[in-house]
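Students often ask what a 'structure token' actually looks like in practice. Rather than answer in the abstract, let us consider Transposase, a protein of 132 residues. Its sequence is given first.
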Amino acid sequence: MVAASHNSAVTFSLSPGQVGDAPEGRKLLKTLENCGWEGTKVIMDKAYEGDETRQLVFDLGMEPVVPPKSNRLSVWEYDREIYKKRNEVERLFRRLKGFRRIFSRFDKSDVIFKFFIHFALIVDTLISVNRP
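Now compare that with the structural description of the same chain:
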């Protein structure tokens, strides 16, 4: 999932459980090409700190904000204050998992499951209007 803030998802996709996060994340990032997001800071989890993913973000005209893994030989600087905002997106995931049908994946059909993710995002947005 790519989220713009703690209460707005930009795009998401479903992937098989055995597929790694980084390749799927790159596919989602490629969908943002030519969407006017140039200059945007992209806050990413350490799972996405690979050279290929970071280079894609640079190629899209965005700035990756991700700490290097501890075993990385060539480290880089990143904006630690901006990176602290990553928890806002994690809160979005937590709220979505509050919908029992999503966290337990009752639906075997991807179409129905995607529908309920969309439904949960809409409900979360409507509730967030009243949230301080």
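One point worth highlighting: Residues 26 and 53 are 6 Å apart (CA to CA). Ask yourself how you might have guessed this from the sequence alone, and why that guess would often be unreliable.
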